[in-house]
Design brief:
Blueprint lengths: L1 E5 L18 E13 L5 E5 L10 H7 L4 E6 L18 H22 L16 E5 L1 H12 L6 E5 L9 H19 L6 H11 L20 H12 L5 H4 L7 E6 L9 H9 L4 E5 L11 H11 L3
Parallel strand pairs: 3-4, 3-5, 5-6, 6-7, 7-8
Antiparallel strand pairs: 1-2, 2-4
Length: about 300
């Protein structure tokens, strides 16, 4: 289904507050999301990255839905259809983060109002939840959520993208190559190989394009917008790049990353920081950037069941 989203950019203020979620809604814009699970259980939000869609977490939710109330959120421009009035050239990550925050805020409020006071502590209020799982660009948005809207999330599991990332020259060059390749594909029209180049990049990067739950056949260049807007922010000095340079939120994090990659998407400082933070953990896992699927779904399922237990 589709869930209501926050206001358009012209209505967005500079202050990252959500004092009244209903005031932030914009019926012209929606985020794709699906909710299922135990209505009395803690709420867990799932955010995917490139080139996936919300079906990335479908097998995990199937295993967790008896214990948790699971909400899978689809990023705009990813999946089977674009949201209504989604700009042709996408939006800045900061604005998309606000939209995700507003959706989470609304769902949290709806969950609170639908539960009796005796069950409140088992869902979005009280001592348990809500929780967050983020991978790839979903991890980037998760970091911004925890920084700007820490009250929305109590704990987070972040997959493979660090909160501090200062790449070496070699890693930086590698990242520039594939990201600008995707930006180039994003700039090209559909009839001029934009989609084909994006699908080729997904294959080279070992993305799960053949996984039945990921609908790899709908990968298009439209989903490359985060790379363009991140580089635009970087080159034009538009706002911070906090998720790459520093991380100040105190939300407890379980950081899981695949050990079998040509480049790591975190710096040693990130591992050191989490090691000093009470409640935070680091877990290296055998596998690549998508280490928690491809027959290894149990790694994330177990992590959710153990880390999201207060």
């Amino acid at each position: 289904m589709y869930g209501s989203l926050v206001s358009s950019s012209s209505e967005t203020t500079s202050s990252p507050t959500l004092s009244s979620p209903l005031m932030m809604l914009d019926r012209r814009m929606y985020l794709e999301h699906e909710a299922t699970g135990n209505p009395n259980g803690p709420t867990v939000y799932f955010l995917h990255g490139w080139p996936d869609n919300l079906n990335l977490y479908k097998p995990h939710v199937e295993a967790l839905k008896e214990q948790f109330y699971c909400v899978r959120i689809g990023l705009p421009g990813f999946g089977s259809a674009s949201p209504a009035n989604w700009p042709a050239r996408g939006e800045d990550i900061a604005l998309v983060t606000r939209r995700v925050a507003a959706l989470i805020d609304v769902i949290n409020e709806q969950r609170k109002s639908s539960l009796s006071m005796s069950n409140l502590s088992m869902s979005t209020g009280g001592s348990k939840g809500p929780y967050l799982v983020g991978h790839d660009w979903g991890a980037v948005i998760s970091y911004e959520l925890m920084t700007d809207f820490p009250r929305l999330i109590k704990k987070a599991i972040i997959l493979d993208i660090g909160g501090i990332f200062k790449p070496s020259c070699a890693v930086g060059c590698g990242m520039c190559c594939y990201q600008w390749f995707l930006i180039t594909a994003w700039c090209l029209p559909d009839w001029c190989c934009g989609n084909t180049l994006t699908r080729c990049a997904a294959g080279v990067l070992n993305a799960p394009i053949d996984e039945p739950n990921n609908y790899g056949q709908i990968i298009t260049n439209e989903m490359n917008w985060p790379y363009y807007h991140t580089w635009k922010r970087r080159c034009c000095c538009l706002g911070r790049l906090g998720y790459m340079e520093s991380f100040t939120s105190t939300v407890p994090i379980l950081f899981m990353y695949g050990k079998d990659k040509k480049m790591m998407f975190h710096s040693p400082e990130w591992i050191d920081l989490l090691g000093r933070r009470p409640g935070s953990l680091v877990q290296p896992v055998d596998g690549d950037h998508w280490f928690f699927i491809k027959g290894n779904e149990g790694v994330l399922i177990t992590a959710v069941q153990s880390f999201f237990t207060d």
